[in-house]
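Hello forum,

I keep getting stuck at the same step: I have a sequence, I want structure tokens, and every attempt I make locally crashes halfway through. Rather than fight my setup again tonight, could one of you with a working pipeline run this one for me? It's a single chain of 201 residues.
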Amino acid sequence: MLSSKTLGKFYNVYMKKSVQQTTFQPITVTFSWEVKSGKEEEFTNWLHGIARAATRWPGHLGVTNLRPPKGQDTYQSVLRFDTDEHLKAWLDSSERHEWIDQLKGIAVVHSNKATGLESWFDLPGQSVAPPPKWKMVAVTFIAVYPLSLLLGAFVSPHITKWNIFIRSFLFPLIVPVVLTYSFMPFLTQHVFKRWLYKLRS
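Reply #2:
Ran it on my machine without issues. Output:
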């Protein structure tokens, strides 16, 4: 049996490093671009250029660009960064400001940032309005409850002799990772997709 001193050393050396690497909350920003008539090709070239530039910045997790339906002029871009600090560094950079300056006379931009709970309810490759908050809470509860049961039944009995600080740390480490990468994508993109979102037919 590992002593509490050994576990404490393990926590200080490994677990703190692990939580810094895995429990970040991705930040999503949605941009709506109102493109002037006749400027579509110029805008598309500009959009590809600024997207390539953003990939070189720390924390960049990807961008999805969506063309408007026929007869409309609003393009959509969904930009993801790993932290708010990295996102802010890119948005405030002189490089990005130079790209935005090139957009004058081509398009007008509107943006909306989502963090925390809302970031669990994005649909990859689709621009949709976030669901009502009560629906977010309901789906989050449906995800958290069975996870809590599983942890209580299969993990808790084996760590009862651990130091209380180590035990208390374990669950906040596991739960956000499992929710972000497994439970919430499955529930929001498959099980409850039609109930959560008003999707275009």
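The chain has two domains: 4-23+131-196, 27-114. If your local run keeps crashing, start a new thread with the error log.
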